[in-house]
Every structure is written in structure tokens, then in C-alpha cells.
Fold:
Amino acid sequence: MATEEVSKPPSLPPYPEMILAAISALDEKNGSNKSAISKYMESKYGELPQSHASLLTAHLARMKESGELLFVKNNYVRPGPDAPPKRGRGRPPKPKQPVVPGAVLPPPRPRGRPPKPKDPLAAAVAKATSGMPKPRGRPPKKAKADPAAATAAPPAAAAGDGAPKRGRGRPPKVKPAVATDVA
Structure:
């Protein structure tokens, strides 16, 4: 049996290093585009993996997002030393006021919505009745005070026996009595 040595592909440096080396070696005024970077990498490092195109695209996008590279007019450029740092998405935070030494700071307000009270009904009733002179809701009905009925019969008899109790709904229409003509 013959011993066969499996030829290992030469180890490649990480893609970000290869990309930065390609951009600095090409040294174009307006930066280098993706195809120029890819051709330089193929010429310098020889055999690249089959997924080289997608790996290059992914690493270029990641480096652009992190601020390692600038993307100007379809070319990738290394940012200069005087370039401002890349700002993230959204509104920038407000500048903080310098703290005077010896000042007592209030505790930080917790994030999010404040928790609901344990007994929401009691808190709602206290809030509703705090500045109101009258109680909530419709006031109770008061008994009618009829001076003639009060003197004629005691209150127990007024509610009871003589008058029929009214039913629900609209009462029936009263028909007029027919008058007879006698002439």
C-alpha cells in the first residue's frame, strides 16, 4: 500500500485582511470595486473556495456596515484618519450634562411603563372621588310628597288595595263613549 499525502490547500488569511490588502495594493484614487478586489485576490492567493463570490460580498457588506470601509460611487475606500466615526441608526443621544462633584443624584427612573396598582378599583374610586362634591352615578329616586294623599290615607294604604296596579308599556287608548241623539 502506497502512502498518499493528501495535499492540503494553503491556508488563506481571513477575508477582511485579504480585502484590506487588496484595496491598499490597488491604491486607486476613487477606491476599488468588487470585481477589481476579487481579481487581485485570485491573482495573489491562487485557488479560492467555490463560494468566494458570496463570501466576498458578505464580508464587504459587513465591513461597510461596521465602518471599516466606505462605499462611495460603487467603490470601496478605506476611511481616512480624519473621517468621523460611523453613526448608528436612529436619533443620536442627547449630550450629557457634566456632574458637579458632591451633588446628590436622584435614582434613575426605570424604563418602560409604570406597573399597575395592586387594587385598581380602589385607586380608580379614590381618583374619581377626590375632587367631586357629589357621589358618582344617578341619584336615588325620592318618594313623591303629595300633601292631599298624605292627609287622606296612611302610607301603607296609599300603595295598596283600592287602585289597580299599572301594567308595563303604554296604556290602551281610551275610546270615547258614543252619545245618542234624542230629538
Observations:
- Residues 3-8 have pLDDT under 50 and may be disordered.
- The helical segments are 15-26, 34-45, 52-66, 120-129, 147-152, 155-158.
- The longest helix spans residues 52-66.
